[in-house]
Amino acid sequence: MTRILYSLCGADAHRPFSPHAWKVVMALKHKGLEYTEQPTPFTQIPNLENGFSKTVPILRDGNELIRDSFDIAVYLDERYPDRPTLFGGEGGKALSRFVEGFSQTVVHGAIARIAIKSVHDTLGPADQAYFRSSREAIFGRSLEEVAADRQREIDTFAEKLKPVTHTLKFQPFLGGEAPLFADYILFGALQWLRVTDGADVLGKDGLLASWFERLLDLHDSAGRVVTAA
């Protein structure tokens, strides 16, 4: 069976950085499924699989095509129920939806403001033009103006993750004694920052830093295959 994960990269195809694709990398590793990763620049994504999706990740699993990281995780649990679960039941799926919302509404914005210039600088010329125009439209400011707030965002980042720190006082993972997709969602966001910018936003929070290190070590250190920026 042909299993391909389409992810996102800049000028260096060996440094995929999409937070959403990293969720799927960890999900596939969790399920013990073999795959080939195909990192793709922003401006080439519309050409993938006959224009199947405007964004990555995209998973081809034999004849099946699935977009969106959460939908991919649900598909993997339903398609391969004999392999380790990503959700541990409907309660875990509901938990993951909450963590997804928290990550995308609180964490992603902060990371974008920290790493926006670093991401831009990793891209090829065509992608730099696309990234600048699209992100400046979103923020209503130049990339340089957004990046001017970088240190403030770094200094206040751990504060945003206090609910996670509180949870980790009682258990080693968001999923409990072992990681679930909820862990991979937040991991994907922090891996995006690690790979593109490398800012130390967890250094003063021992619980968060230890949790992230445990995630990096999982699945034969899959998260460490790409080094920090």
UniProtKB/TrEMBL annotation:
Keyword Chloroplast in annotation: no
Keywords recorded for this protein, A-Z: Transferase
InterPro entries listed in its UniProt record: Glutathione-S-Trfase_C-like, Glutathione-S-Trfase_C_sf, Glutathione_S-Trfase_N, GST_Omega/HSP26, GST_UstS-like_C, Thioredoxin-like_sf
Organism this protein belongs to: Rhizobium soli
A cellular component annotation (GO) from this entry: cytoplasm
Example GO biological process: glutathione metabolic process
Keyword Transmembrane helix: no
Name of the protein in its database record: Glutathione S-transferase
Residue stretches making up the GST N-terminal domain: 8-84
GO molecular function: glutathione dehydrogenase (ascorbate) activity; glutathione transferase activity
GST C-terminal domain boundaries: 105-229
